[in-house]
Amino acid sequence: MQESIISALIGNEIFEGLNEEKLRAFFNVCGRVVNVKRGALLPLNHNGECALIISGTAVIYSENNGSRTILRFSVQGNPVGVAGMFLDYPIMTGIEACSEKNLCAVIFTKEELNGMMDKDDSGILRNNLLKLLSKKISFLNKRINTVTSGSAERRLASFILSSENVDGRFDSGMTMKDLANCLDIGRASLYRAAERLSECGAARYEDNCFFILDRDMLHEISIGKK
User: Fold this and answer.
1) Within 10 Å of residue 20's Cβ, how many Cβ atoms?
2) What's the pLDDT score for residue 181?
3) In this structure, how many other beta carbons lie within 10 angstroms of the beta carbon of residue 67?
4) Are 196 and 189 in contact (CB under 8 A)?
5) How far is residue 42's CA from residue 32's CA, in Å, rounded to a whole number?
6) The domain 148-222: what is its CATH number?
7) What is the pLDDT of residue 128?
8) How many other C-beta atoms lie within 10 A of the C-beta of residue 38?
9) What is the CATH number assigned to the segment(s) 3-131?
10) Residues of the chain with CATH 2.60.120.10
């Protein structure tokens, strides 16, 4: 693997705290690197594989009868597919590249991770995976709050806060129409909500991105205190 990819993997939350020498030996024989163009799906077997995003952005969605529900967005450094990797039944989700640059990811199989956990006497890898799965549960609770939180402002604020972002910048990769459908509100209501978040100094919408200006205020709006 390229040195830059190995460095990104070593710094990931799944492998944090593990011996670097052992990690390099592991990465040299395990994992496959894939590059996916915008609009294409990450070739991931959801029941037996997970991936770590090296660069680019992915949108994760569920699909039922041709209708999509956006679950979250993942950016550089984020793991995807971990929640379903150990299940015995298929998860009906898709992971699609949605940024201008290609989505680069490293895919690992369940057998590869299990083999590494068996060799990790410290138990760090197993603890990291359990912590990550706990975070997934917390995220789902936040997402439930998003779709049941009432006003358009609350839904939008919850969505921005519960989505992974870098340095307060959140690029959904969606049009405002698609985002409105995702939040189950009208497009006009979404635009008004974005304007109100900007007016109160909580978040700014610019160039198809949301920029968090005041995280505490955004949180208060998401729970109905503002």
Assistant:
1) 11
2) 79
3) 9
4) no
5) 12
6) 1.10.10.10
7) 92
8) 15
9) 2.60.120.10
10) 3-131
Backbone φ/ψ region at 201: left (φ over 0), alpha (ψ -120 to 50), beta: left
- Closest CA relative to residue 18, chosen from 129, 132, 131, 125: 125
**Where in the chain are all domains bearing CATH 1.10.10.10?**
148-222
- φ, ψ for residue 200 (rounded to 5)? -90, 0
The segments of the chain whose pLDDT lies below 70 read 1, 141-149, 164-166, 172-173, 226
Order of all β-strands in the sheet with 67-74: 67-74, 58-64, 93-97
pLDDT tens figures, 47-91: 789 999 998 888 888 877 777 777 778 888 888 888 888 887 777
CB 58 within 8 A of CB 42: yes
Q: Note the pLDDT of residue 3.
A: 78
pLDDT tens-place string over residues 169-190: 877 667 888 888 777 788 899 9
Nearest-angstrom CA–CA distance, 105 and 102? 10
